[in-house]
Amino acid sequence: MDTCALMKYEACIGLETHVMQKTATKMFCGCKNEYGAEPNTNICPVCLGYPGALPVLNAKAIELCCKAGLLLGCAINPHSKWDRKNYFYPDMSKNYQITQADQPLCIGGQVTAEVGGELRTFTLERIHQEENAAKNTHLSGASLIDYNRAGTALLEIVSDPCMHSADDALAYMTALKLIMQYGGISNCDLEKGHMRSDVNISVRPAGQEKLGEKVEIKNMNSFSFIVDAINYEIDRQIDVIENGGVVVQETRGYDPDRGETFSQRTKENAHDYRYFPEPDLLPVELSAEQIEKWSSELPELPSRRRERYVSELGLPDYDARVLTADKTTSDFFDAACHKTKQYKLVSNYLMGKVASLVTEKGIAVDQSRLTAEMLAQIADLAAGGTVSSSAANELIEILFTEGGDPHAIIEAKGMVQVNDDSALETWADEAIAENAKAVADYKSGNAASINALMGYVMKQSRGKANPPAVIAMLKKKLM
What we know:
40% of the residues lie in helices and 20% in strands. The protein is built from 17 helices and 17 strands. The chain has helices at 3-7, 45-48, 59-71, 166-182, 223-242, 288-296, 302-311, 317-324, 327-337, 343-361, 372-383, 389-402, 406-412, 421-434, 436-443, 450-460, 467-477; strands at 9-20, 75-76, 79-80, 83-86, 96-99, 106-107, 110-115, 118-131, 135-139, 142-146, 153-159, 195-205, 215-220, 250-255, 260-266, 276-277, 284-285. Strands 1, 2, 6, 7, 8, 11, 12, 13, 14 and 15 form a ten-stranded mixed β-sheet that branches. The chain has a three-stranded antiparallel β-sheet with strand order 5-4-16, with no helix packed on it. Helix 9 (327-337) packs across helix 11, helix 14 packs across helix 16 (450-460) and helix 14 (421-434) packs across helix 17 (467-477). The model has no long low-confidence stretch (mean pLDDT 91).
């Protein structure tokens, strides 16, 4: 797209993000909320919508929805109600979805995220509670439906059309995902469909207040695909307008293989769903005391945790951002720091060797045999000079895959670092005797040549010599 054409228009983007909540059972029945079960085994007359089967409210889902709202600065509605959203599609066998239309649980709110090095605040319209639909799998000539997911607790976070680029949307989704994970609301596992977004996109001439005609891209569960789809759709809409056409309100899909959106159907309006109050459920009444109790139980959010790592633990801002970008890693770091004061060493190990092992082995650190207490012990051993940095990394790998006692392993494998002056002096004398050129270069002013002598000592000691002590000994000998 021509840069001049892009500058003539402003994109307006809003997201409707569906987050599956961490509840043991479904929203309105006692069926398990369980990923990976045999298809159509966690079902009952309620979630299948059999005549006469009545829904029963899941109190935990209401709590999680309200806590999500409190984490995002929403006003909690003391009186909210349920509505039926009517539509005919096999993913909801009763032909309607129980949701909230005009009186949601949470109103307003915001998400603050960093975009291009600057903090941006994206406003929310609402968060409402609803039930999930079934999972459809489309094959050649047939469609398969798994109702295990139907009826699971789902909250929908609706933003205002306040984003203006794919970068804005990516920053918003990344921040939202972290808040939901840290808050214990959802695992937000994209591959398991825990977090999906409908993306609403419109363009308007720069400076115009009225929004353009919006297009909705449904059920996007990949951040990278959302970014690509937004960029493509902005270009497509501008191209339509520039060529004298009119953008029509519609639902479109995204084809990741072609990198293009495609028309699916004309967009429905609210009246098409024939919303009406759900007759089988009472409204939700929340007291000020209940809301205050939930507010007092809110966990530390990633932004506050980053600040704490820098101000209280003395970590660089870079470390704090890397560690808090993944809740599992951050929790592991916190647990280790309760056992040691070597905060920077623990951070280095988690960002370095441990991160490499997580990628290589394909398992999260908390699923490995390495514990936070073990990592704390390794940091103390390294800081005290008992093991070298290379031995510490070797020890981490052994414990990650096999487990065990760090002290027993370093003794059994002879990993204890040598600090004894007499041993170091012997190796230093050998290095000087066997490397005349390096000695001459060092005495001629080439300070870097001491590294050759250092390498000789480390080879002779099989890596056990304490590097700083070796350097000190060599410099003493070469004075």
